[in-house]
Amino acid sequence: MNSRIYFLIFIAFIASAVSASPAYSKLTINGNRLRQYSPIEHPFAYEKVNELTNCEEKKKEVENDVKYSSQKFSRSIGDPYYSQDMNCDDQNNCNHQENGNDQQQRRNEYSDSNASRKTSNIALKAAQEAKAAEEAQEMAGKEASKQAKFQLAEKAIQAAKAAQAALSAKKMILEELERELREAEIVVQDLSSSIQQSESNANAALRAYQQAQALLKMLSELIQVAQSTVGYAEQAAQGSQQELNEKTQLLEAAKNRVEKLIREMKAAKVDYTNTKKEAYKASMAAKEARQNASRVRRHQMSAAGSEQ
């Protein structure tokens, strides 16, 4: 009997706690308006409210139990009405043995004592209800604590899974950055070799240009000497003219060579400048990739340290 009373008080406590939450829909049971929870959002309250739907039958059973217990208490203190007039079986069903006149006589005879016994029964019932309420409150607190611990454990598991997923993602990013860094270093090495080759070509073109300038100067001096001696070497005019023509051809060839070398030198300078710019960009990209890799590595180390 006590367990059923405790159960009803506990159900009433759960119902009052459920009614304070905004996440509910209205449900009517025997004229009483309860709260219907979602089984996913509030599984514990949902279970207790569903148990409350059978509260009316349990209430009737408890009333019968209380009535039966009161009768047993009256018989134990010597109440002739309950000890002689009624026989109660194991199913809490009590039947009168005497006729109606005798029963009325006994009720009148013991009316005063019945009032005293009723007062005692009320006091006993109040004490039992107070004790049941205290135990039900402790039980509800334990159940709420278990539910809170379960929810906290679920949140901790989800947080651990999220942290592990973030760590895996950071590891993949770090590996990708390291791969890009290696590729950038290879590109920088290739560009450095290309720059060295371009510098060698530019130096060679510069030396050729200087040689052509010297040759041009020398040929110009020879032409000047030849022109100054034309008037004094009329006999050698034809030979000198032929020589002049040859020198002129050589001069034109030298000029063409100089112009060609100048164009090649300009192209080499442009190529050198462009290559130098590309090398600088590659160097900056490699530096930035190293910095990104260092930041990701530090972040990963700090995340691993915080998890430990």
Automatic annotation (TrEMBL):
Domain of life assignment: Eukaryota
This protein's UniProt keywords: Coiled coil, Signal
Ranges for region Disordered: 81-118, 283-308
Compositional bias of kind Low complexity: 84-98
One Pfam family cited in the UniProt record for this chain: DUF745
Coiled coil location: 160-278
Signal sequence region: 1-20
Protein name in the entry: Uncharacterized protein
Annotated source species: Chironomus riparius
Lineage of the species this protein comes from: Eukaryota, Metazoa, Ecdysozoa, Arthropoda, Hexapoda
